[in-house]
Amino acid sequence: MGGHDKAKRGIPPKSEFSSWYPAIVEIADLVDKRYPIKGMDVWRPYGWKAMKNIDSLTHSEMTRTNHEEVNFPLLIPEDLLDKENKLVAKLKAARELGIDPSEMRYDEEVEGFKKEVYWVKHAGENELDIPMFLRPTSETAMYTLFPLWIRSHTDLPLKIYQIVNTFRYETKQTRSFIRVREIHFFEAHTAHTDEDSATEQINEDLEIVGNIMSDLKLPVIISKRPVWDTFPGAWYTIAIDVIMPNGRTLQVASCHHYRDQWAEAFDITYEDGDGVKRNCHQTTYGMSERLLGAVVGTHGDDHGLIFPPKIAPIQIVIMPVAAHKNPIVTDAAKQVSEKLSQAGFRTYIDDRDLRPGQKYYDWEIKGVPLRLEIGPRDMDKGTAFAARRTGGKAPIPLDDIVSAVTNELIEIEKELEIRSNHMMSNSIKSLESIDEQIEDGIIYHVPFDGNDSDAELLEKTTGLTILGDSIETYETEMSCIISGKMTKRKQHLARMY
Amino acid sequence: MGGHDKAKRGIPPKSEFSSWYPAIVEIADLVDKRYPIKGMDVWRPYGWKAMKNIDSLTHSEMTRTNHEEVNFPLLIPEDLLDKENKLVAKLKAARELGIDPSEMRYDEEVEGFKKEVYWVKHAGENELDIPMFLRPTSETAMYTLFPLWIRSHTDLPLKIYQIVNTFRYETKQTRSFIRVREIHFFEAHTAHTDEDSATEQINEDLEIVGNIMSDLKLPVIISKRPVWDTFPGAWYTIAIDVIMPNGRTLQVASCHHYRDQWAEAFDITYEDGDGVKRNCHQTTYGMSERLLGAVVGTHGDDHGLIFPPKIAPIQIVIMPVAAHKNPIVTDAAKQVSEKLSQAGFRTYIDDRDLRPGQKYYDWEIKGVPLRLEIGPRDMDKGTAFAARRTGGKAPIPLDDIVSAVTNELIEIEKELEIRSNHMMSNSIKSLESIDEQIEDGIIYHVPFDGNDSDAELLEKTTGLTILGDSIETYETEMSCIISGKMTKRKQHLARMY
After folding, report:
1. CA-to-CA distance for B91 and B441, rounded, in angstroms?
2. A156 and A132 in a common domain
3. Taking the model in full, what pTM does it have?
4. Among A40, A41, A125, whose Cβ lies nearest the Cβ of B115?
5. Range of the domain at A472
């Protein structure tokens, strides 16, 4: 599919991240950006396999935690927003009474949301009576049906999810996986009897995120977003940000605790054990193809991608060496491939008639974690030659190939984890005083407990954005970097994508 | 999820198919039709699992035949249709010269197509410069990129596929899975060096269809569609129709041989071994959620669904009997479930505190192929009691449960196949004379080799639609039922969905 001529194009050094990233996603055959709509890439087979492997991790976690998969329509009639508007009105009233600052920005958000959707107002030759929009996310669609599904406390908790295409009319610069207009999206939605049960769900979500981040070996920061960055209608939002190589953070997942705010607007109620009607408490949890963007950005190097073994489309590429002179080598490669496939590994035999150097080059670009070379000399010794994409080569025994390869992949995972931890510790610093020089590409840990205008001052002075409260608990009180008051709260400050 | 109260609603008898079908898809929790857009149902977990199991069969076949999975954007800019318009113009010219009648209706089709799509002309608060439409199918999107992917004969054959949501602004009455406005769709697209290689692809497609139909145990007729029912821009179309219980046929799959007509319009060329530039020959192959509609319609009965084992979301429901008095029974149920899961079966333990009759009733509705009852008496004898959804009950040995269950499911498949064959032989008759009385719910096999007006006469007289030429070869010549001329061609005539 025309990949090889592209592969011969040079890859910019990764230190020039803003050139490297958009180049490598195409050179490695993940996507084709030549589709004639900005921000809508074509997923090529290699990229789609990687994404589906990430989805598989998600499906497994969802099954483990008793979420059920559904699939809702893409189109949402505009009039369903009436209920959201009711919610807006309620929140507005609350604001006027000075009740809850977390709800301050909601009406603006709904207006903003309308500016970000694609509209379907025509079908065939007709103008539609009620315009529809392409889902940017599915709260409105789903919560229209929840009241029909939930009657009694025995129907709770309701835990569903879907993996679908969502849409955002993005006006900022688009970037493959990171900022796109058609988004490959995961969303879990749950309903519970009370606030505590919903809080437990948020904890479960964070456990799931933890497992997936561990499989992907990504360096992440978890923050409780500040009030003004809380998802519309949410009580609070916890966001998971990956530290990208340029020090900017990329939000790859978020969990929202809604309390009963949406339930109130959408009449999502249940009868408790005593027959009393109560509002449900709800949560959502979202992730997207940004996970793949983070994997590309975090692990790649000057030579191409490096896939974590758990999601690599090809985990092991097998190269018969000097096969034209030694047909026995090709047979051995096939046997090895078969053994590994049977053990559940994803393998590929590269028997193209090319110089080994050219083959290495191709598979380095594609980020295959392990390369196995099988040549006549190695075979005599009963070994194959294993080269890790993360560096290091050694012979491994052919007669114990499955456990040897298992071990190699574990070592590669360990190496990626070390690098990820290294990235974390190199990228995060404490900011003690507002007068300190801000370093490029650094995420700051700041004692802060000020009000909105203090926050604005902090952001303006540093030129960074407040990611939110660290979810870790700190024992020592420090003085707030702006207001000076003693606090145990620490905030993350960074440049965000 | 509110399923049980619905399950208590009565199911219409299957003999009243037009009431039974729309009722059972909701009663069995496949979909929820209460989403506020006509023809856009919500897939509930049980229905979505069944659909994904069908998709798994498709993925396996695609992998076996070296198709690669891609994912194209949903939105297609209107100006890409210019190339299709060029194709239209060419075909019009051909028609004026009287060259190929198979191309007669293409311009009308393109006009028709524009009447059937959803348009996106607005995003946020902007009117778009170039309107876009939601894909009804992806020829236009894909063939825009094919010229970038295909350079040389070594890039061929190119075989790709995707499983995505497609859209059709359906003005006829909608029916779950059968006629919907958001369609869960499979489409394979291939490009080849020449006509023969494309023809081989069509044969491979028919082999794939055969395998899938065999797994689903559906009664199918394969026809080469008449000229006026050929897909726009195709040389010929082969369609796979399922015989539904009311005798109407439902097109569930189709394969199109394009020759080089689209390649000409989209400049899809390659350099052959001698460096000569040539047009590609192309094919497509499509299937959709109609496969699930056909499964529901074909196999269900007065008591509910019957899922073919290969795609049943739950293959075996295990019921501990009198478990509250005998905890050992629950343990045994768990052990059996675990053994079966490890062997790759999809199982579910129903330990609800309900009368067995109520439980039977629920699982019959959901079409679970096999029910295993494990009670204290059976356990004493070392057996479980196996009840097939297709009828018949017998004890099976607990200590050899995996092979016993394997055998039960094979027997159920055999029974479904017998029923399917029975359906076929009961539904198809030969029509010898145009004066014969047409029976309701019958598909006719007709010797026919007339021109367009003969065809019109045949359809008008019988009140049926010509499905097309049988793809079987007949040795005996018969006289065409309209024109009287001797012919080996036989056509299928039916009422179509």
Report:
1. 38
2. yes
3. 0.95
4. A125
5. 428-494
